[in-house]
Amino acid sequence: MSTALELAGHDLSDALWSGRLLLSDPDAVRDAHLAFYRAGAEVAITASYQVTFDGFARHGIDAEETARLLRASVSLARSAASDVDGQRWVAASVGPYGAMLADGSEYRGRYGLSKQQLMEFHRPRIDVLAQSEPDLLAVETIPDVDEAEAVLEVVRGSGVPVWLSYSIRGDRTCAGQPLEEAFEVAAGIDEVIAVGVNCCAPEDVASAVAVAGKTGLPVVVYPNSGEEWDARERAWTGDGTGFTALTGEWTGNGARLVGGCCRTGPDAIEVLARALAG
């Protein structure tokens, strides 16, 4: 989403990131979804990743308006889907606590908060998104098993399907926990329909798929292009030309929902869709 918006000329350098455009230019958000759908995407992830009651309050946006923007994130993706043929799905993004801080801490975890505090942070946003009737919730870029447990406790019993996706480095979460331990937290929670990884290096995906597949659930993967984010400089570095070359390995290992995260725009998704169709 952010890549598509930046390619369209939008400045996303402030702390509200793509969520700000839900307020200032919602048509741009709809257009970005439509571009991905037309490129062959079957699932849109909403622009709610950075939209939280706490984070928006810091910028003078009250709770009523924040709730409206969360609902709009779902309706904009749904509206874009109506402009293309075939079935399309809307996954409402639930980003980690660290995304609200906008300081790169979603790539570290270990915020110093209790499970109860994390539940209290996530619950209001999840409640609004669930009531907005997405097809599922994308609990994504979670760096820490503790936060995953808190979010899943909030969604337990809601009846809204969820995928749980960690951000990782190598064979561990960004907070350093083994992936076997990370995926185990989904056991026994009926709402979880897939587990996997996102916002990670493409070369880390194949081994993560093998571990996630041991849960018996479908596996979701959507890594970055291969470039790396410098949180201090707020800039991307490196080469992202090989993103789609590894797709066959991921699906061969059992991945069933495949896409792209940071720095993967509609052009990359078009290549990916063609490869998967083949």
TrEMBL record:
GO terms for molecular function: S-adenosylmethionine-homocysteine S-methyltransferase activity; zinc ion binding. Its EC number is 2.1.1.10. Residues 1-276 form the Hcy-binding domain. Keywords: Metal-binding, Methyltransferase, Transferase, Zinc. Zn(2+) binds at C199, C261, C262. GO terms for biological process: methionine biosynthetic process; methylation; S-methylmethionine cycle. Binds 1 zinc ion per subunit. It is an enzyme of class 2 (transferase). Its cofactor is Zn(2+). The keyword Acetylation does not apply. NCBIfam families: PRK09485.1. This is Homocysteine S-methyltransferase. It comes from Lentzea alba. The lineage of its organism: Bacteria, Bacillati, Actinomycetota, Actinomycetes, Pseudonocardiales.
